[in-house]
Amino acid sequence: MKYHIHTKALxxxxxxxxxxxxxxxxxxxxxxxxxxxxxxxxxxAILREIQEETWINHAGEIHCDFSYTAHGKDNDTYFxxxxxxxxxxxSSIAISDEHSDYLWAEEDYVRSTPMTSWLxxxxxxxxxxx
Length: 130
Prior knowledge:
The chain has one domain (about 1-130): Alpha-Beta Complex (Nucleoside Triphosphate Pyrophosphohydrolase), CATH 3.90.79. About 25% of the residues lie in helices and about 40% in strands. It has three helices and seven strands.
């Protein structure tokens, strides 16, 4: 059995809007984040991913607020998503080549915008528990 651990961030600005990044490959909106690289801790991974994808050097409080597990295309692979919540007062960002655009969005937009199915499922469950 294989396990892939991913981190994503619900990164909000001072107005309470959530940062979305548009993936260059699929043109789908996504949250900042990515794979945990061994021997990283999950918190180290999300901080690294935020910095790599947005150039935001996050120094504020960040915590894991939700976890979600999904099957891969075969029954021997599982994806574990750790959803972190953080705030930033960064006034500007610079996106990486992995992304073509960014948007600070209201929660209602985040809830309704098309994303990859496993992330959409995770966010649906996350918002249901609030």
